[in-house]
Amino acid sequence: MDRVLLLMGTQTYRATDFLEAARRIGVEVVVGLDRPDPLEALHTGGVVSLDFQALDGATAEIGRLHAAQPLQAVVSVDDSATVLAARACAALGLPTNPEEGAVASRNKLVFREITQAAGLRSPWFRAWPLSAEPEALAAQVPYPCVLKPLFLNASRGVIRADDAAGFVAAFRRIARLLDDPDLQVAGGELAGQVLVESFMPGQEVALEGMIRDGEFQLLAFFDKPDPLDGPFFEETLFVTPSRHPADVQRRALAVAAAGARALGLRTGPAHAELRLDGGEPYLLEIATRSIGGHCSRTLRFSSGMSLEELILRQALGQPPTDAQREASAAGVLMIPVPAGGQLEAVHGLEAARGVPGITEIEISIPLTQAVVPWPEGHRYLGFIFAKGERPEQVEAALRTAHSHLRFDIHADTETSACAS
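Now predict its structure.
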């Protein structure tokens, strides 16, 4: 039986779907966690604790696992271990992306430098240490601009500023966020910097793909119907297939593929985010992992395969000959956090689940736990899924279902203070 090491952060949404995919294709799983966690109860293949930041030590530990019982694949299920997975696969002689490409997909400054050097459309950008005085920097940037941490995902810490006062406030807010000890450890030296970019307008889209022999192969093209213009950039709706004109979609795919080549990507999943400014695509980022959250549940492929099955099969050298997405339209609404505090109750679930086209609603934050809105937060209240004949039907079903939901959130001093 093939054996795969799944690397994942302890707060990942992606564990269950990858473990289920491994069960369906009949592979043994070892889970590599960045620290011990209750996820251990989800599977029987074993758990190993690894320090994802200590790449040499973690790679050596993976080598010892391989020596004891060979691994046929090492896969990072989220952003937390994409660099470690690349290094470990290289050490074991398994197909992988160059470590430099994985690093660039995690470091927003390096990504900007590489894609600009490759001739891709790029905003004005510059990184500064968080120890700098923001008042002195505010006169050096174009407005509107966007400030962001170099290493966080899910739009965490991303803030738009329209003037000098907004820049100073955003700079200080990001500095407070990155002062968190856990983020200091996770980001290392990157936690001491902020990236500033000129704001690029336009509607956002996302492309889900697989890199095969260095080529970006499109699996799904998602529209993001809600405007993402700031001041924060919490995502909500993803709907596929796209309603943009075919020529716009072709140009977006070409830009995503060019970005993947610029990073030297050769294999595995890739998730690209772009803006369409007047129909012209502009690359926001490419991640060497699949779409985040539970959003992959919108996708089913030939013979009912999940996206996670496709990823594992390719990693194991078993790429399917046909990976066409099912014909129906599909979408997900990531339920935004309206206020910070403690989640006390959820109302309207029965009515929301009764909306035609709704296939599943999952509330992902348990009652009595804290919820934190963006830009400090990064965990959604839950996910609403829908299918239909046309994407506009799917979007309408998602919005209707969301309108039925009400959340009782008891404000408390701690979560309210972090958002001030």
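The chain has 13 helices and 19 strands.
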